[in-house]
Amino acid sequence: MGPTLDIPLHVKYIQSLGENKDDLVYHLTAHLRMNAVYWGLVALCVMGHKDALDRDEMIEYVMSCWDDDVGAFGAHPDHDAHLLSTLCAIQILTIQDALERVDTARVAKYILSLQQPSGVFAGDSFGEVDTRFLCCAVLALSLIGHLHELDVEKTVGYIRRCRNFDGGFGAQEGAESHAAQVFVCVAALAVLDRLDELDEDMLGWWLAERQLPNGGLNGRPEKLEDVCYSFWVLSALSIMNKIPWINDEKLTQFILSAQDLEHGGIADRPGDQPDVFHTNFGVAGLSLLGYPGLEDLDPVYCMPASVIEAKGLRKGWKALPRRASA
Amino acid sequence: MSDLLADDSEWADVVPIRQYENVNPVAPIFYTEEYKDATDYFRAVVKSGETSPRVLKLTEKIIRMNPAHYTAWQHRYKTLVALKSDLEEELRLMDDLAKQFMKTYQVWHHRRLLLTAINSVDAAVLELEFLRDVLDVDTKNYHTWSYRQWILAHFNNETRLWARERAYLEDLLEADVRNNSAWHHRFFVVYASGIRLGDEDREQVRRRELSFAKEKIALAPNNPSAWNYLRGVLEFTKTPFVELASFVEPYTAVQPPSASEEVVDLDNPLPTESAQLPCVAALEFMADAYEKQGGDATAKAVEIWKSLANERDVMRKKYWEYRIRDAL
Questions:
Q1: Which of A29, A165, A211 is closest, CB to CB, to B315?
Q2: Which of B6, B93, B101, B276 lies deepest, with the highest CB count within 10 Å?
């Protein structure tokens, strides 16, 4: 009988993230600040403590990251706009029911402008391309109600070309299969109603093979387990309705053992330093595994299921049923 | 001696823009003095659009402190172009940074932009050499491999770029036969990026690749990458799985063959005495081969799946039970 999820402790951990921190780490992660707020918020929602962070303050912070030159959001005030932070901003405002603050038509224009001739998306004007950005674009457009403006064939065509001999997907055409890239491709296909592009049996098996004897999941063969794959792998499986292919008991134990039961938060693996990224994905994974006392999470959007359902965006994914007790 | 630009006469003409000029911050960040100073001046030059040699020095300072500062990279590249700088010199300057921060996307994207602008196979050759040094440090670095694939595909030069890849991969797999990135790259080079010079005889290539995979499986049977590669080649070349049955079967036994047994069959290398058997991947393979055959063979597949579900691969019990249901 291992540890249980210490919700109050993790809530306090997330609340403390905005306070006085070790200077170096905090300022070097400014480019992730918007993402960090999103991870914190989703984790809180899943743990049933959405109000642990002040809603108005959060909305003002998000709006202070608006880059009026291009019509999108940066990661931090006066940082250039980027697709990653734009998606996170939209997700946060959607959860906080404040999307009306945004000029969504302008944002849609920005997003669409980042699509390359090949069908992939760049993250910003610097030009780095990755299937992650393709997924950000698709999720964001769907949340702001502009998905119909997307060239679906072109977008799906690029994903198709990223499919490898092992059934998995990489970051670009030709790149190695990686669980996080599998998730972004599968999630994008789910939103576009093009799951027919997948060989679900082969991919499902490749994903199930990520589970190691210690119960944790890795991202590619012969690499280490990491709590964040509890989300990337699990959500892809749930979209394909194959979560049972993972040993849920052992994975649950693994995630719980990665908690920092002294200071709060969840780490990438037991014994390491926690951070808000792994805290979010650990809790998200537990929700999909049916862990008791948690709210339902939509694996396609990594947002509260109730929010996505209310917007009429729910797809046919299946999580494990919520258990009554641990 | 101060490192701050605020104390540097060279920057006396610039008014730094402090963070949060007109904003009341909700999530304030606490900077070290030097980083704060550098980014204050950086904000000023971005606003004024300055692209001068001192901006190169400044952006270098920032990215060395914080390689994830993507705006600094962006502005640096713009400045290099505006100054018509020697881009190959820039590559050399950024080499140690790439090695230090190889997990940061920006480092690789910058090099990609430089290579694209330089646009020479000579530079690509040098870059592939440099990447070998980087991969020496982290043989599975995802961005490095992805960048390597881009260089090969973009310049697409058979004799000077593609030609040495397979030999390089064989060295890497000698050192670590479980390097999934190397296995993936081999498939990329041989099958997923056009036909290599010298590989025009596709049947010869098929035999060569199957032979390679078998040899590596014999070396270390419980290696998912080698089995995935084998399967990948079979699927791609439309080779029936059953063709490999005589090779795979010995790996499904509970014990390796004793040294005296068997004539040495070079086409079907046997498991060594130290092999951990039965090899789960071999069992899975045989089950798939039987299932593909269909008819009476299906029952044999079900037997194997039952043993996997109940004994050999219990972690994935529900997956094996699904395979049984699906076949019946």
A1: A211
A2: B101
Contacts of B32 in chain A (CB under 8 A): 23-24, 27
Tell me what the mean pLDDT of segment B294-309 comes to.
97
φ, ψ dihedrals at A66, nearest 5°:
-65, 130
Tokens 């008014």 belong to B15
Tokens (6 digits) for A209: 């093979």
- The pLDDT of residue A195 is above 90: yes
The pLDDT confidence band at residue A1, using thresholds 50, 70 and 90, is low
Residues from chain A that touch B322, judged by Cβ atoms under 8 A, are: 244-245
- Supply the pLDDT for residue A19: 67
Instruction: Note the pLDDT tens digit of each residue in B264-291.
Output: 788 899 999 889 999 999 999 999 999 9
pLDDT higher than 70, residue A242: yes
Nearest CA-CA partner of A268 in A295, A229, A240, A239: A229
Q: Give the Å distances, CA to CA, from A9 to A265, A271, B221.
A: 8, 17, 45
Q: Please name the residues between 223 and 252 in chain B that touch chain A, using a CB distance below 8 Å.
A: 223-225, 228-229, 231-232, 235-236
Question: Phi/psi of residue A299, each to 5°?
Answer: -70, -25
Inter-chain CB proximity A77 and B179 less than 8 Å: no
Taking CA atoms, B218 is separated from A98, B129, B283, in Å, by 60, 31, 15
Residues from chain A that touch B26, judged by Cβ atoms under 8 A, are 57-58, 60-61, 64
Chain B residues in contact with A61 by the CB 8 A cut-off are 25-27
In this prediction the pTM is 0.93
Q: Is A60 exposed, middle or buried (0-12, 13-18, 19+ CB in 10 A)?
A: middle
* Contact present, B305 and B324 (Cβ < 8 Å): yes
Tokens of A175: 């790149």
Contact yes or no for A175 and B142 at CB 8 A: yes
B32: pLDDT strictly greater than 80: no
User: Helix, strand, or coil here: A303?
Assistant: strand
Distance CA B186, CA A165 (A): 11
The burial class, CB within 10 Å (0-12 / 13-18 / 19+), for B15 is: exposed
Q: Say yes or no to pLDDT of A280 above 60.
A: yes
B292 is catalytic: no
HEC string of chain B equals CCCCHHHCHHHCCCCCCCCCCCCCCCCCCCCCHHHHHHHHHHHHHHHHCCCCHHHHHHHHHHHHHCCCCHHHHHHHHHHHHHCCCCHHHHHHHHHHHHHHCCCCHHHHHHHHHHHHHHCCHHHHHHHHHHHHHHHHHCCCCHHHHHHHHHHHHHHCCCCCCHHHHHHHHHHHHHHCCCCHHHHHHHHHHHHCCCCCCCCCCHHHHHHHHHHHHHHHHHHCCCCHHHHHHHHHHHHHCCCCHHHHHHHHHHHHCCCCCCCCCCCCCCCCCCCCCCCCCCCHHHHHHHHHHHHHHCCCHHHHHHHHHHHHHHHHCHHHHHHHHHHHHHHC
Which of B142, B184, B319 lies nearest to residue A164, judging by beta carbons?
B184
